[in-house]
Amino acid sequence: MEFLTGFTAGLLLITLSELGDKTFFIGAIMAMRHPRRWVFIGVTTALFAMTVLSVLLGRVASLLPQHYVQWGAIALFLGFGFKLLYDAVRMKNCGSLEGEQAEALEAVESCQGDGLVHTSPQSIMTKTFALTFVAEWGDRTQLATITLAAANNPFGVIGGATLGHAICAAIAVICGKFIAGRISERWLTLAGGILFIIFGIVTGVEAMPG
Fold this sequence. Notes:
The chain is mainly α. The chain has one domain. It has nine helices and no strands. It is globular, with a radius of gyration of 18 Å.
């Protein structure tokens, strides 16, 4: 049961948070320039490595007194949730993802280095891995994964988050350019905020004695 709870939480949080994120567009842009299978492997490998690292950090945090861990998780989830709701309310119309897309394009272009195009599978996977890993470091989803792992079954969180990342990466490399203009940033932000608040409430209920 604990595994299923961690799995479900990781899957929902990552799938919803990563759609339209910077790493999503990095995968989409790289897939327009290189074979999709190598880009997909590079993206998912990087996100899996980041997930495992985040879960390990979460488990280290779980060594603290349990009531500190639980109340810290509640504070982070509710803080993230209300911040996202505030951002969603301030967005004009449905919002756009042009900012994230521009940052992803800038990151990809800066990685060209000497301007030579390296098309071997290894170079494509290495470049995609590096771009994705750096973009994900310190991201909201990394912090959320750490928080989830501190309060839930770590293997469940790894499984759910990995599947969520794989789903988003597949969407990005297969049809990222097509759906980019059809994703509403406001609604994604709003849904993410609600989800974080729900996690905060659930964690709070579990923290209550008896």
